[in-house]
Design a protein that fits this description.
119 residues, 5-stranded mixed sheet, globular, alpha+beta, Murine Class I Major Histocompatibility Complex, H2-DB, Chain A, domain 1
Length: 119
């Protein structure tokens, strides 16, 4: 089991999705990475994402589980009234603990009634 040190955020207590997402991000990263960043963009009908480490040339592997957790995070936050157009989730290892922080760019317009997320 991984140790987590979340860096605040409205959704740390309302959902277990974010710690699972961060754990999967770390698992998808090359073993030499000690940090990484997931960038997610919501284009209304779909999500686009990249997982990278600017200081490292190796590429991460985006697993079906990572994609599922990204979708779950978007849906959970949307249901809680937090519609966003972009997200950045950074992780790093500090003292044997996976730490992370988040930044969300929120949409100005209300959420569409229908989309890929279902309801």
């Amino acid at each position: 089991m991984q140790n987590f040190g979340g860096m605040g955020g409205k959704f740390d207590t309302s959902s277990d999705v974010l710690p699972r997402l961060v754990s999967e991000m770390e698992a998808c990263s090359p073993k030499l990475w000690e940090r990484g960043e997931l960038a997610i963009t919501s284009e209304g009908a779909r999500l686009s994402y990249t997982l990278r480490n600017e200081g490292h040339p190796d590429r991460a592997t985006l697993t079906p589980e990572l994609r599922k957790l990204i979708d779950a995070l978007y849906v959970a936050m949307r249901r809680e009234g937090a519609l966003w157009t972009a997200a950045r989730i950074r992780w790093w290892i500090e003292g044997g603990t996976i730490r992370f922080d988040t930044h969300f760019t929120h949409a100005d317009a209300p959420a569409p009634k229908k989309g890929w997320w279902g309801r």
